[in-house]
């Protein structure tokens, strides 16, 4: 990341601070922060590099590879690790705010690492128990929950859990299940998909 004209980006500072705080088996580990010296070749601006632990795969890449097959046990293990990582960051009052398969890394030993905290931020609640107001222009469109699409700015951990649910379903379908091109279309697709799954759930319960 290059230094901006008016200083180091606040979003980058926030990401570094959060990554330094979080230490968990299912959170990607920030090993080191490196800086290059300002020279005539970089317009007298140094660059900052974040050095992370090596992860062999990302979940989106694995899902797009037709030769890679996930067993039910592997899906369960993946989701367990993802939810453990989310539980940890939420317990530490951090929202990820960009849950998607591309931000889920997997080591050669099958350990899941939640990555890319560029949109992450600390959260808190007011004295009335309501979440504070944050921007709703977060989360990649296909994984964005209905409340953000409707303009809600008082949100908390549930927005990450919506993304986790999308990722879990994607492990069976092999591609994102709700692919809108605009916020309006995405809201409609979300609503239609929820109706379908609710109907299937009702039919399943009736059989029981």
From TrEMBL:
Gene Ontology CC annotation, any one: nucleus
Places the protein is found: Nucleus
Keywords: ATP-binding, Kinase, Nucleotide-binding, Nucleus, Serine/threonine-protein kinase, Transferase
Entry superkingdom: Eukaryota
Xref: Pfam families: Pkinase (PF00069)
Gene Ontology terms, MF aspect: ATP binding; cyclin-dependent protein serine/threonine kinase activity; RNA polymerase II CTD heptapeptide repeat kinase activity
Every Protein kinase domain range: 1-208
InterPro entries given in the database record: CDK, Kinase-like_dom_sf, Prot_kinase_dom, Ser/Thr_kinase_AS
Similarity comment: family membership: Belongs to the protein kinase superfamily. CMGC Ser/Thr protein kinase family. CDC2/CDKX subfamily.
Protein name per UniProt: Protein kinase domain-containing protein
Organism: Ciona savignyi (Pacific transparent sea squirt)
